[in-house]
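Open question from group meeting: does this chain pack into something compact, or does most of it stay loose? Before anyone orders reagents, we agreed to write out a predicted structure and look at it together. Recording both the input and the output here so the notebook holds the full record.
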Amino acid sequence: MKTVATRFAPSPTGPLHIGGVRTALFNWLFSKNKGGKFYLRIEDTDKERSKDEFKNQIINSLKWIGIHYEDNEYIQSDKINDHVKVAYELLKKGLAYKCYCSSDEIEEQKKRAKQKKIPYIYNRKWRNKGEADAPKGIDPVIRFKSKVEGKTILKDLVQGNIEIENNTIEDFIILRADGSPTYNLSASVDDHLMGMTHIIRGDDHKINTFKQIQIYEAMIWQVPSFAHIPLIHTIEGKKLSKRDNASTLDDYSKIGIMPNALRNYLLRLGWSYKDKEIFDLDESIKYFNLEGIGKSPSKLDISRIYSMNEHYIKNIDENDLFNFLKSYCERYKETIPDLAQKKIRNSLHFLKNKAKTLEDIYKNSKFLINDKVQIENEDKKLLDETAVKIIKLFCDDINKLSDFTRETLEPIINNLIKNNNTNFKGVGQPLRICLTGSKFGPGIYDILCSLGKEEVSKRLSQIR
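Structure tokens returned:
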């Protein structure tokens, strides 16, 4: 039995879209589940729009989310001669032909179709004409001779059987007038050369699949199996596009979504296994199958992504969580000083409380990262005469402590509440503002114990 082989084939004409990442994930998991191989093909034949920055972004995005491919990237533009060679083989076999229609003629055909409110299909004018009829001064395109009779049934591994009348598929161009191959020719040739057994891609490719099957059959190649995944929609039910916010992995990485959480979310976006929600990597590979993919579009729900990320923050090993936080800060915020790194490691158990993202943890950690406390004007207004008095009394009391723990601090704060006729907020809020620069943040005892007696005294002494 032939080893399963799948591929992900993006064009480097823009950042990798979240829908593309899910397609890559499904291909990768399917291959891994079957003990097969997964490849990355960069379809860069559109030289004007293809850019190395997008190619690198695609590669880095797959690496970030944990999708690994075989060998080096397969670069489509390196294989153009192979694509052209197949076009001329088809021409020689009489399964393709030269079309000399001018662009004006084609536009006129499209205009008439539009007036009649019917889909445009090339009228096959040059299908049965010979070279003797060819006009001078026009470089022809090469068109594939599509079937004009009967039906084709695609046994789609997700959608089920899909039937199409062959005469609805036009004689599509496989070689442009400048000699460059078109998408359907290049993709077919590459998939054959790469030995692809399964083509798993978005269901917007269904018509392309029918065209590519005809190329396979004309060349007497083994036709791969096809599976078409429903597209991802916005929460409003519209097709998700590259112009939407949060459409690329970078958008999620910037706000502190972790790769494992996003991968788990994308796995469950349109796929299910019983009622299981959380999958580690091994489980994802073990349970993934095409039968679990739904037939309807899925809606991208940012609130579910936050919820999934929060689950991972709460449950992953704290050493791993710190490494994710450290990488996130270095990439988007600031490098964490060595001394602060130790304090953050020891404080993650409370810094991660209620945090949905790595950015939330970073914000909670800023009082440990930065030595100097910057207090916003609005919060300064809360440091009235009573607040300053309480801070002074607190400093006097902690200076007497030899053991700086929650157990020794609680009686001090309780006495301040009692003796100053206030409540916990009346003591905790001014202390939090002076120690962190904000009235919001972790619990006051967690702040005090993570900073330590010396640093607390130092920061509070600047207020008195």
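Observations to bring back to the group:
Residues 98 and 291 are 43 Å apart (CA to CA).
The two ends are 79 Å apart (CA to CA).
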